[in-house]
Amino acid sequence: MKRRVFVQWVRLVILVLFMNRSFARLSVEDASLIEQVCQKTPYHDLCVSSLKSNPKSSSADVKGLARIILELFLDAAKDNLVQVKKLLNRATDPAIKQCLDVCSNEYDSAINVWTPLALKYLESNSIPDAITEVSNASGDAETCEESFGEVSRPSPLTAENNYVLHLGKITEGIMVILKK
């Protein structure tokens, strides 16, 4: 009886040790994939930190990593639109209001047109079309930022616009890997 319990205990310990090695290897492989993918994108550090902050990335393939960054892009664009609307409600300068109207329209397109199309094309493996739509959506953040320069006003959204733009460039970089 004692021998049987001892043998079962040893089996359990071996199983646990084996599983720990397997999980450790998987997490190293996952980190390696993230690192390999992010090396091929602009804004490497932002790419790595964004992907590692999402638990889904640990089991994602390259296409899954592109989807995760694209979803972060969409969330950031939505956050920016909320910020634009708040600024628009408080703005008194007609030139700033005009710029914020541009930003509102641009982010609305990024959120409701370009990014959903990019996700659709990514899912259907139409990678060149997905890249085009991500580029369109990123261009909306750029247009928002540039609108302030056109009226010689400082943009209150520079950091936010750059964040969205950088996520877009990272997404495009990952999608280029998928194209190969």
From TrEMBL:
SUPFAM superfamilies cross-referenced by the UniProt entry: Plant invertase/pectin methylesterase inhibitor
Sorted UniProt keywords: Disulfide bond, Signal
Leader sequence residues: 1-24
MF GO annotations: pectinesterase inhibitor activity
Source taxon at top rank: Eukaryota
Pectinesterase inhibitor domain segment(s): 29-174
NCBIfam families noted in UniProt: PME_inhib
Any matching Pfam family: PMEI
InterPro entries in the cross-refs: C/VIF1, Invertase/methylesterase_inhib, PCW_Enzyme_Inhibitor, Pectinesterase_inhib_dom
Protein's name according to its UniProt entry: Pectinesterase inhibitor domain-containing protein
